[in-house]
Amino acid sequence: MLKYLGHVPGVSIPTLHIGMLFSTSCWSSAPHGLPYIQYQHTGAPTIWHCVPKSQESKLQSALKELVPTLVPDKPCWLKEDWLMVNPKHLSQHGVHVEKCVQYPGQFVVVFPGAFTSTISCGYNVSESVHFALPSWLPKGLEASLILNKSEEQELFSMCSLLCQLVQDEKVEASTLAVALPLLSALINKELDLRNQLSAAGLKGEKSDTFSDSPSSSAITNKRRSSTTDDKICDVSNKICYFSMVLVDQGEQTLCIEQGVKHIQRRKNIKSTKLFVQFTQNELEAMLKKAKDRLNSMSCLEGSSSNGSGSSIINGASSVSLSLSNTSIGNTSGSKTRHNSRQSSSTS
């Protein structure tokens, strides 16, 4: 799934971790709800402590009591590399904390929503990388909205990911069936906000300002190398992908949601401009082409099954639910270790 983002540091590019004696990583949870896997190449063991997703409210309450000034009252309440608290103190406050010791040659898999911290027992080298399955897409979109609401910066744009995915002619029908409704909802919201700006007298215009972003016409083999050229909203820290509002000749950049609020306050209307990467016709054509392709694949699926199978979309829902129950949605906090591969999972 993440291949559609190109090379994004900390997301689709593996990260090398070099630890020393008592090196620590603070309590954290992947900001986009992405699962990741970490492999230890060599060196001393790494001690992992984990709090499962099901314990989030207890963890938040405990940290508010232990370090109240470090826990903001926001949906995204735990910043990365922000705080370290002794697991014993968390246990004393009723938080269920799991422990896992990772040795060289072992994998640790961290599931979405899990909170982790680590301590190195000496010099070691490990490597981690995020991954995503189709069932993650709704969770990823929800996590992105939480980041926007908390005014925390995104690592990548879900709008971009979904656009690239639905335009891929080789994407599987089950994956397209999951992604298409999400993108359709985002585009409908985008067009509604554009209509609000248009009613206020602000017309959108096509701009080459978005030239750093992937092309809307096709998926190319050459991916963008980073997100450093993305246009970021100065208020919400959201990546402006479909459109952006520039105020005072570019002195301030706003996402379209903040642009509507800006116009509603009747501030600097004459010096405010709306720039779009995709026109309404282009967005609607993108959706129509993807829907037609999905319907075509659904017909082929129905023919091959001689009428015994349901539609592709219904099948995709059952696949997504199955994955959620077996792995991605696992929040029990249990760990499994297989002697043949010596792997551990943290959820």
Can you describe this structure?
By secondary structure, the protein is an alpha+beta fold. The chain has two domains: 152 residues, Cupin (Jelly Rolls); 136 residues, no CATH class. It is built from eight helices and 13 strands. Strands 1-8-3-6-13 form a five-stranded mixed beta sheet, with no helix packed on it. Strands 2-7-4-5 form a four-stranded antiparallel beta sheet, with no helix packed on it. Strands 9-12-10-11 form a four-stranded mixed beta sheet. Helix 4 crosses helix 5, helix 5 packs antiparallel against helix 7 and helix 5 packs across helix 8. The longest helix is centred in the middle third of the chain and has 27 residues. It is globular, with a radius of gyration of 22 Å. The two termini are 21 Å apart. The relative contact order is 0.17. The C terminus is likely disordered.
Summarize the structure.
By secondary structure, this protein is an alpha+beta fold.
Radius of gyration: 22 Å
Mean pLDDT: 82
Following the backbone from N to C, one meets helices and strands in this order, namely: EEEEHHEEEEHHHEEEHEHHE
Counting DSSP H or I runs of 4 or more residues, the number of helices is: 8
CATH architecture classification of the largest domain: Sandwich
Strand order of the largest sheet: 1-8-3-6-13
